[in-house]
Amino acid sequence: MMDHEQAIQEHASMRYALGELAPADRDAFEGHFADCSFCMKDVEASTAFAANARQLFRERAAVRTPAKGFSWFQWRPFPAFALSAAFNVVLLAGLGYEMVHLHPAAPAAVADSDGAQNVEIVPIHAITRGSEHLPVVPASRASIVLAFDLLQSYEHYRYSVERAGSSVMSGELTVAGRPDSLNLQIPVARLSPGEYRVTVTGTEGSAQENVGACLLQVGAK
Amino acid sequence: MEFHTFDASYVERLTAGDPATETHFSVYFRNFLSLKLRARRLATTMAEDVQQETMLRVLKALRQGSGVSQPERFGAFVNSVCNNVLLEFLHKESRQPSALEPTADPADDRIDMDAGLVTQERKQAVAEVLDGMGSKDREILRMVFFEEAQRDEVCLKLGVRAEYLRVLLHRAKEKFAQAYLRKGHSKQETRTQFCW
Predict the structure, then answer these.
(1) Ordered DSSP codes for A32-50
(2) I want to staple B149 with a disulfide (CB 3.0 to 4.6 A). Which of A164, B57, B127, B143 is the partner?
(3) How far is CA B155 from its chain centroid?
(4) Nearest CA to A152 among A179, A186, A131, A115?
């Protein structure tokens, strides 16, 4: 059994609250603080501090996420996704060139809507068990690509875009092979301002699982 | 410096069914067992069952069994009874996995486990502590609590020594306890809110 001096010296209360003690040390410390009201109080304070600090940091991170946006310099895409993204950029550039240079009769229309666009690609990490906080993605451009991590492959994929619990758009997605990510392009321009929940689910046999989800915030146009 | 709560007189009063001692026993050990079972990330329903069974067996041992040989270590006795109960429950669960399957998932869910401990006032007290710190210290705590990074990793990333991190955590927790208690919350209130 751990003695009181040892418990204090080793900051056992906080390490216990954070789950950092090895099982043998944890058992030894429990044997002590069951009889020591001082350490018991210290464990209470440490546990409460840890739980509330975790929650506070979660809340602050959730508030900060929309403003932070997506940093290209910190982004480390999967190789397959990087290749796919590169092809998309080339395709869009080619399309833009074709629209501007091969259809000079309608330059105004091109500039308005159908021309090449700088498409924002936002990675959405896989849903972890117990995670309640969805990533918030602000969308200010006409279109956005949400890149959902695929930790495993499924037979079928579906997406749904909901607002206040009502489906705005949904459908099947075609995914060839076993890619690392699934890229879902959302026509933001067609959505009225507000918050939308975007969910991608995968189906394998009769089992259906959430692949990823996020909250899309569409600003006023 | 020891702060033992128990002695032969306490155990005698509890055995005899003294109401005040029974109340103390109930509050103190419910709290202890909550902390202990929480540290093992046990599902809430199972934790409640283990708590009740432990307290029942302790009282039974005092009133119908052989009693306690070292009354000054009554807490350690309760702890060992709980260990036995816990082993039995886990053994039973491993034999009937399907019966506990629906409740097995939340056992690892820290958000759910924290729910009973998080209050607006406590969060405010933590916010006061964090906002009174320098940005580097705040980042250290963010890594520890939010990212749940290992201490070695935090020290390496932010260039601080392990002792600095230990002291920082200790001081933050002390300030939190002072700030929370300063707002007029009694020890009793703090304890009862820990129950699952």
Answers:
(1) HHTTBHHHHHHHHHHHHHH
(2) B143
(3) 27
(4) A179
Return the residue in A25, A30, A134 with the most chain B beta carbons within 10 A, the one to mutate for interface testing: A30
Query: Residue B100 — left, alpha, or beta (φ > 0 → left; ψ -120 to 50 → alpha)?
Result: alpha
Handedness of CA B31, B37, B43, B46 (dihedral sign): negative
Q: Tell me the one-letter amino acid at A64.
A: R
pLDDT tens, N- to C-terminus, chain A (221 residues): 788 889 988 889 999 998 889 999 999 999 999 999 889 989 999 999 999 998 888 888 877 655 444 555 555 555 666 666 677 777 777 776 665 554 444 443 333 444 566 778 888 887 665 556 788 898 887 788 888 888 888 888 888 888 888 888 888 887 777 777 888 888 888 888 889 999 888 888 778 888 889 999 988 76
Report the chain B residue with the minimal C-alpha distance to residue A31.
Answer: B76
HSE of B88 in the Cβ direction (CA atoms, 13 Å)? 11
pTM, two decimal places: 0.56
Angle at CA of residue B59, ends B53 and B61, nearest 5°: 100
Nearest CA to A190 out of A122, A142, A154, A147 is that of A142
Across the interface, do B3 and A37 touch by the CB < 8 Å criterion?
yes
The set of residues, in sequence order, having a beta carbon less than 8 Å from that of A144 and lying 6+ positions away, is A119, A120, A121, A122, A137, A185, A186, A188, A216
Q: Which chain B residue shows the shortest CA-CA distance from A49?
A: B173
Contact (CB<8Å) A44/B169? no
